[in-house]
Fold this sequence. Notes:
This protein is α/β, with parallel strands linked by helices. It has 17 helices and 13 strands. The chain has 3 domains: about 270 residues, 3-Layer(aba) Sandwich (Aspartate Aminotransferase, domain 2), CATH 3.40.640.10; about 40 residues, no CATH class; about 100 residues, Alpha-Beta Complex (Aspartate Aminotransferase, domain 1), CATH 3.90.1150. The protein has a 7-stranded mixed beta sheet, with helices on both faces. A 4-stranded antiparallel beta sheet has the order 10-11-13-12, with helices on one face. A hairpin with a 2-residue loop joins β1 and β2. The radius of gyration is 23 Å and the shape is globular.
Amino acid sequence: MNPLAEQLNDQIKKNNPHVFEMLSPFGKRLFFPKGILSQSAEAKEKAHRFNATIGIALENGEAMHLACIQDMLKGIRPDDAFPYAPAAGKLALREKWKEKQIAESPSLEDKTIGRPIATNALTHGLTLVGDLFVEPGDTILLPDKFWGNYRLILEVRKQGRIVTYPFYSASGGFDVQAFEKGIEEQTAGGKKLIVLLNFPNNPTGYSINKAEADAISGVLIEAARKGARLVVVLDEAYYGLFYADDLFRESLLGKLANQDERLLVVKLDGATKEEFVWGFRVGFLTFGIGGAGDQQAVYEALEKKTMGAIRGSISNSPHLPQTLVLKALESPDFRKQQAEKFALLEGRARKVMQVLENPKYEEAWTVYPFNAGYFMCMALKGVEGETLRKHLLDTYGVGLIAAGGNDVRVAFSCIEEENVVELFELIYKGVMDLKS
Length: 436
Ligand SMILES: Cc1ncc(COP(=O)(O)O)c(C=O)c1O
């Protein structure tokens, strides 16, 4: 074990031994090397004469660059585009994102949480969670409808074991009882458990209401108090896209942070969906822990380990998109423009809800409740999702996702409001063709 990893482990153990036990063997070995990066950070402060440390090139006191690239970046300084970003991301962006998180979830105001660490968007955040906390055989508890990439990241890559519980209760809400039962079963004997929650959800387009948020956090806090070690991962990729009044509009981090020493929360969020910059790859990973020890010391050590995982894989996330997202967050027009796009998506969701009220559709499918995000799902009656998917493509030029068994997922986020009626008419036709 590298002495720097040992130091970080001691720092965590001293202040929260449960968090140390949650780390995977790789997580325990991780550290952030005092190599080129820290020497060059020191040089940035003190090397007033010549700074010959880091592997970029300088010219006239700024990052060397090609005019044909810089000319496309009006208003961006070369130093904010071309050099490497720090392993944990641009500091100003991290601080601005934290401000945004607190503004959106006021219950975070009086909580001690880590500083968001920039990731190569949420997929990378999930991979980092896998690096830090998942070892072969570890259980990951998920509802039975989830984003398929979790399998690749946590099962194929990390050899975790996904165990599911029913997503919906009989009344059409989130099945809190099934969730509670899943937690009880999977933590029997005080075992470590990784719990992954994704609201607003992909694929269902369902987000929890306030009562469900209270119940879910109650179950988790209670299980931790009873002795289970829980790593609760909050995938909040679609944060902010809420289309019903009684929805819980904060991050669950506010309810779960600082609640119990055995409860470690990892919030994953980002600009991907919220700011409509899917290809920029700007996301964040934020820790929330509990316990009486020095929480700042634990955050610091977890941050260094996360930086080590980043340094040892992608080295750092791209700089230019971080600068663009930071500038967007600083723009006085940001919230207004974002609200306009959110309203457009809400209009589409409401149109879908209205169109689906047509009683004739009852013979073709059952609609799963949805109220948020980009998607909605339907269970087809008597037709396989994959059969319909192919038929719609071949016959009507309509693409949707077969989501396993009879389920299909429709991304209404991609369909203009005036086309919603036609889309569902064609899906209906497709189902009826196959039934006859
Ligand atoms: C639930 C969920 N989490 C994470 C992601 C990945 O987001 P990113 O593009 O930020 O990696 C997606 C993207 O489809 C998603 O649906």
